[in-house]
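Hey, can you fold this?
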Amino acid sequence: MEMPIDHRWNALNDLDWEAFARAWLAELRGDPESPDSEMGQTVVMMNFTAAPEHQWKFIRCAVAASESDDDLNSIAAGPLEHLLGKHSENWIEAVEDQSARDPKFAKMIGGVWKSMMPDKVWDRVQKLQARDTGTSGPESG
């Protein structure tokens, strides 16, 4: 059963989304300056309860705030895989466009696994991965 959209995400402005993404990445890194929180759980809830437009904003903010390949892999294996698994038909074109414009985003695509994506969307993701790295990315997982 799919969870309903939680409209509380609508209250976040651009600065809130940026701070949310930075806090999540800091927690993932084990940053001692990161407040003891449950950002990881909040991101999982966002994946299931926020509108895809909000998930997309979070993904772009997280990529912009990323500082390492580990950060990019966390974004790829979490929020982006979820967005493409649940809303792939409506979002693959945006992913392709962002990948063409943003080298950091293009690099992040290399960490995406098939997960719940339909085959035709996964084929498009693999083309993005091949364009960025010269090889295909991870196998389905």
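Oh, and this one too while you're at it.
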Amino acid sequence: MFMGASTKQGQDIALKSREIVRSLISDKIEHLSLEEQSIVERIVHSTADVEYAEICHISSDFVKCSIESIKNGKDILTDINMVRAGINKYSGEVKCFINHPETIKMAKKEGITRAAAAMEYAAENGFKGIVVIGNAPTALYKVIELFEKGKMDIESVIGVPVGFVGATESKYALKSSQIPHIITKGPKGGTPVAVAAANSLIQLSKDNKRRKPDEI
């Protein structure tokens, strides 16, 4: 089954679309592993934007760390509820605390965005797993800060915030960190990219469920 398609017609359309995507970007992603290629293909398919084949950067440990986290049922934390809603078919928990009362209080008290406060709240409440950020650079900065201070147990980060204020810089900061990650260079990114990357990892974890960790 492809891309969530549940009917024969839907599966045929999805398959044809993926074939078109591969024909357009195969030469741009041939240096990537098969798992990494699958992630980028899904991002391009979800956005209909072939430029993502050139602006996605994936750290060498991202796929392995992410798949192990998913296989172990660790949490996925998102910056906004729209990203949370798009991540599907995961047996573990997908969490978002941006509207949590304690997050709102913390944001007001510390004078930070709710997205950043949500990351801090998650860290204070024992979060461990994958962080998925598609919209808020402030959340990404906070995640890096918490990780570097040893206050947040992070397996990997999908860091693809979109926009012209802070997005590029926050992704560069993630790229320069020790956190396993995928980013999109420049201002491009957003919910569809974040969701595509997360769902691709979930599918990869199912495809690789019988493989040993060192084979991924």
